[in-house]
Amino acid sequence: MKGHIHILGICGTFMGGIALLARELGFEVTGSDANVYPPMSTQLEAAGITLMEGYHPEHLQPAPDCVVVGNAMTRGNPAVEYMLDQGLAYTSGPQWLAENLLQGRWVLAASGTHGKTSTSSMLAWILEYAGMAPGFLIGGVPADFGLSARLGDTDFFVVEADEYDTAFFDKRSKFVHYRPRTLIINNLEFDHADIFPNLAAIQRQFHHVVRCVPALGRIVHPAHSGAVATTLDMGCWTPRVSFAAGDDGDWSAQLLAADGSAFRVSSPRAEDVEVRWSHCGNHNVENALAAMAAAEHVGVVPPVAAQALGEFRGIKRRLEHLGTAAGVAVYDDFAHHPTAIATTLAGMRARHNGGRLLALIEPRSNTMRMGEHRERLAPSTADADRVYWYQGANVNWDMQDVVDACGHASLSRDIDELVQQVTAQSEPGDSVVVMSNGGFGGIHGKLLAALEAKA
Question: From the UniProt record, which GO molecular function terms apply (predicted)?
């Protein structure tokens, strides 16, 4: 064993991934979390990792060689206070990753307000399909791999590069630690209002990571994003490659199907190729372009990347089909920002044949709960035939104005009542998209069960 690390906040997707990588490297790994539950707990325990419920000082006895502190940990947490009082060695998850795994590897990082999980999953799969056996750490579970992190068998490592802050003692964005050689910036909007005062503060963090990309690297960015362009204009020392669903990116896509399930890719150094896959939406087409451009940087030619995307199975909770009951198809999606809601619904609308498109939305992210995007919420649902909004107890503003602005919406503060409404009002041929970045009170299973009972 290389030593013993204890992870505070181990059941989050990112920190759980760190735990799996550390175990694979040969560390003894234990961890604490407020809630220890499947599926992450099952995945960790199967890897030989001891999990402890709560944040008790005795979890750090005897003292581990290092405590890896998740960014959800705050001063006042009993384990954090004990760690500091005892002078235990500690670090953040991103810093641990950088020092123990990323140094000396070719890091391919997917960043941006939206699409990080999808793009990093596509990129990892393209490299895997090409025989490059990459390592990866992704904030979701790609269906092609069945796990969120692995070491890999080569120097290539794909990481989902999050701009959220690192830890209570390190307020830089996580991605600053990763030192990528290939950097994707998918898009850039204001988000994370709990830690960033404005878009300019986020752009400054993105420029910090831009500064770290070597002159022999590559930055892949959208052809049409003023916010990204402004960030790169702060100073860029790396070759840049643009992408766009249209004619004017270095990498561009022409739709062969209105829903984005087929498109032709043009690139600077290869013949055009066609991608035909099971996914939809312009946002996914652009994610695919970014992944292909990044993969080319490490030697994967477009025809191989296109073939890989044709077999790409997607990611859990990214428009994941959970089942069909009473003729109603139920999908789960992680959308938690007006832009993500709009692009997901637009993709579904382009694909939808008959029936109605129903959206169940829980504004749950810190930014949404604060009401920062309230004026954009109603317009974001324009492609839905009906919207069911859920106002949880921690949403500290009245959502009724959003509901009224939709004109085809209702508001509920009770999940069981919401399930009854949707079940009663849905019809065979409808599609229901449940949108939340949390568990939404188990509404997915409750809805499918209620529809089954209705059938």
Answer: ATP binding; UDP-N-acetylmuramate-L-alanyl-gamma-D-glutamyl-meso-2,6-diaminoheptanedioate ligase activity
